[in-house]
Amino acid sequence: MRYSLISKQIFGYDLTRMALTVDFLEKNLDSLNFKTIAIIGDGYGRLGCILKLKYPNCNIISINLGKTLLFDYFYSYKVFPKLQHKLVHLNKDFVSDFNYVEAERYKLLYIESDLFINIASMQEMNYEQINDYFSLIKNQTKPTIFYCCNRLLKSLPDGSQISFNNYPWSSLEIIVDELCPWHQKFPSIKPPFVRRFDGPIQHRLVKKSK
Q1: Domains of the chain
Q2: pLDDT (tens digit, 9 = 90+) per residue, 141-157?
Q3: 190 contacts: CB under 8 Å, gap ≥ 6
């Protein structure tokens, strides 16, 4: 894959599941070219870069914890050094290629996106944080798509349990809802070489209409 060559990252399981995610979105949505795509918790900028390579006119917004956001920027800039990259502090800061928003500050900004994506990080949040992101999606002024891929049930360090089905899905129209086919097992260097995650992982594609 072109991203793997340019970024000098091994084409392993993480890149494979990102590529499969893009293929899934392509099969279920209209072209994402010229669209704004907000990725919540990308990590290393992998998904954003793959989307930008496939849809060169899309606008990427990466929302991540401040320290982790540095990795999104580093690898995105490495792959696209000639494009615009901006750490967004004010609404006027948004550019047409790559925008980096600290998760600690996103509620201070006006974020509009055609597609929101979250993969395996909402399961690490508490319900208050999850509800805040859903509010961002539901308060969009135009029709919006949300792709969410997370553990059906996850226990947090404080002992609380986060259930995928208890996310605030109400008022969102379901397009696809199933166990994620490529996100149930992962390769391991030790026998039996393929292992299951600690619980089933669901992916759901929903639409927020006007």
Answers
A1: 2-208 (3.40.50.150)
A2: 999 999 999 999 999 99
A3: none
